[in-house]
Design goal:
Strand content: 15-25%
CATH class of the largest domain: Alpha Beta
Number of domains: 3
CATH architecture of the largest domain: 3-Layer(aba) Sandwich
Strand order of the largest sheet: 8-7-17-16-15-9-14-13-10-12-11
Number of strands: 17
Bound molecules: adenosine-5'-triphosphate, magnesium ion
Largest sheet: 11 strands, mixed
Structural class: alpha/beta
Distance between the termini: 92 Å
């Protein structure tokens, strides 16, 4: 038996009703209502309010509030619990993954019921291989929620929320489920957030850049030649000749230095600039010795099919990380294109990744920014546009949606949105999705860590979800500065103590 919780009031529309409830109603509760033809319609509470007649806004002093409190407590009719419901569709059709709204809205006076778990399970917890479980409904915890990973891989996903709200946790949940299939995932990890994760089929890689495969312009950025230093850039591009690209290892660096030396002699005017370029090359080689590899293979050969590949960008600055991500993206997309072509044309090109790949870009506002061109943005936009055809999915993760390129964001077929307070961020998120009503947007500040609104193609219906907390992770928890300071004070005290006693002993001996 469904439990009756309210009655439809006011102006009802096919996609929206208001009801007066017998109890306070929570955001994200699912309700069922009969339409005018007696069919069950499913709705979700988008917002709710509680109002007291006696304790109204017009109360002008504390004494009056105290008296009104007494009146309110004695009057069972004092409170009004109202809820706005977004109608999602006819229940039996939703259970077949079709969203069909009733032609005539539920009539005012119709009873509103709590949706039953078994009615919701068919919709939110389908039993199919491509549906992976990542949490439960926020208000009906007995109902599991799954997402369609095929839709993520073909139509992309945006994970958007303020810092510390559970974005990386969600990526780990997805990675874990994918690792068990096993599928292929590539996560670009800028802050070493994924270092401590623990799951099967993991492949940790430090990002590498092969200078032989870069254009001279990109190489100049990697070795941090300043934007304004035009002469240095010209010298580097002259030194970066075709012969150099065929040298590997130490030979590459020696040949590069020799080329610069030659230019120093032939272009006396620019001797100082050439010297500076040589210094920059040496400095980069020293500072980036774990990243710059002028070897024969390309860095993407470290990425493994059927694994969760975590590429650490920790040692790179933003510009270098940008070049590295773009490099990998370009290569992965080209490989996927070749794989598809090979399927159609029976060619024998070498294909590294025979199956689809899902790529995650954390800090998307840095690497796919709104205002400026970046290489990563260029290739991410390409993956967002073309990835579907070639089996390459993109997940962009950001705590600053307002700063992400809106073109790329609008290509994300699904969104996971957690707590967002800033209005500019909310506006940007709203414009990235048609299914986000103002009512839903207004609820985003009230979400807690791990609570998320899932919308788009990866779910059958927009859903408020409590995501599971991944236990396969050691990083991510907020640091505890007080604890760390205390520990360091104890250490300092014991060092001081031992050096004092050393001095004392020395003094005694003297
Ligand atoms: N599903 C969840 N349930 C409960 N707590 C969670 C959940 N997800 C995250 N948290 C808590 O929030 C903390 C931060 O999570 P996480 O690192 O995933 O956030 P984030 O949004 O990626 O943050 P940042 O923007 O800093 O990268 C976790 O350490 C955990 O304590
Ligand atoms: Mg994170």
């Amino acid at each position: 038996m469904n439990l009756e919780i309210g009655i439809v009031i006011g102006t009802a529309k096919p996609d929206h009703v208001i009801f007066e409830a017998r109890r306070p109603i929570s955001l994200g509760e699912y309700v069922s209502i009969l339409d005018s033809q007696g069919r069950k319609v499913l709705g979700v509470v988008e917002s709710s309010s509680i109002k007291s007649d006696a304790l109204s806004d017009s109360i002008s002093n504390f004494e009056q509030a105290l008296e009104s409190k007494q009146v309110a407590s004695e009057n069972s009719r004092d409170k009004s619990y109202k809820a706005n419901v977004k109608i999602l569709g006819l229940l039996d059709q939703l259970q077949k993954c079709k969203s069909i709204l009733p032609e005539i809205p539920p009539l005012p006076g119709t009873e509103v019921f709590e949706a039953k778990p078994d009615e919701l399970e068919t919709i939110f917890d389908p039993v199919k291989d491509e549906w992976l479980k990542i949490g439960t409904l926020l208000r009906q915890k007995e109902v599991g929620v799954k997402i369609n990973i095929n839709k993520v891989t073909t139509r992309h996903l945006g994970v958007l929320a303020m810092t510390g709200m559970g974005k990386s946790n969600l990526i780990i949940l997805l990675a874990k489920a994918i690792s068990e299939i096993p599928g292929t995932m590539v996560i670009f990890d800028y802050h070493d957030d994924y270092k401590g994760v623990n799951m099967t089929n993991l492949n940790f890689i430090s990002a590498q850049i092969n200078p032989r495969l870069l254009t001279p312009e990109k190489f100049a950025e990697v070795i941090e030649i300043r934007d304004m230093a035009d002469i240095q850039k010209i010298i580097l591009s002259k030194a970066f000749d075709d012969d150099l690209r065929h040298r590997t290892g130490d030979e590459f660096w020696q040949a590069l230095e020799e080329n610069i030396d030659r230019l120093q002699i032939s272009e006396k005017r620019n001797k100082a600039s050439a010297e500076r370029v040589k210094e920059k090359v040496k400095e980069a080689r020293r500072k980036l010795r774990n990243i710059l590899y002028a070897n024969a293979s390309d860095p993407a050969s470290m990425i493994k099919e059927g694994r969760i590949n975590i590429i650490s960008l920790l040692e790179l600055n933003e510009k270098q990380a940008n070049i590295a991500i773009a490099f990998y993206l370009e290569l992965l997309l080209a490989d996927r294109k070749n794989a598809k072509n090979q399927l159609h044309n029976n060619t024998n090109d070498f294909i590294r990744f025979k199956n689809p790949i899902l790529v995650v870009i954390e800090e998307a506002h840095v690497f796919i920014p709104k205002q400026e061109y970046t290489d990563t943005k260029y290739f991410a936009a390409k993956v967002a546009r073309e990835g579907r055809k070639f089996g390459m999915g993109l997940i962009v993760v950001s705590q600053r949606p307002r700063s992400i390129d809106p073109g790329v964001l609008s290509q994300m077929g699904s969104l996971a949105i957690m707590k967002i307070i800033q209005q500019e961020d909310q506006t940007q998120v709203a414009s990235a999705s048609e299914s986000l009503s103002t009512n839903l947007i207004e609820q985003l500040p009230s979400l807690n860590p791990g609570e998320s609104l899932l919308i788009g193609q990866w779910v059958n219906l927009p859903s408020f979800v409590r995501l599971y907390e991944s236990k396969d992770r050691r990083m991510g928890a907020d640091p505890d500065p007080v604890e760390e300071w205390k520990k360091s004070r104890i250490q300092h005290d014991s060092i001081r103590e031992s050096s004092n006693s050393y001095l004392r002993e020395g003094y005694v001996q003297d």
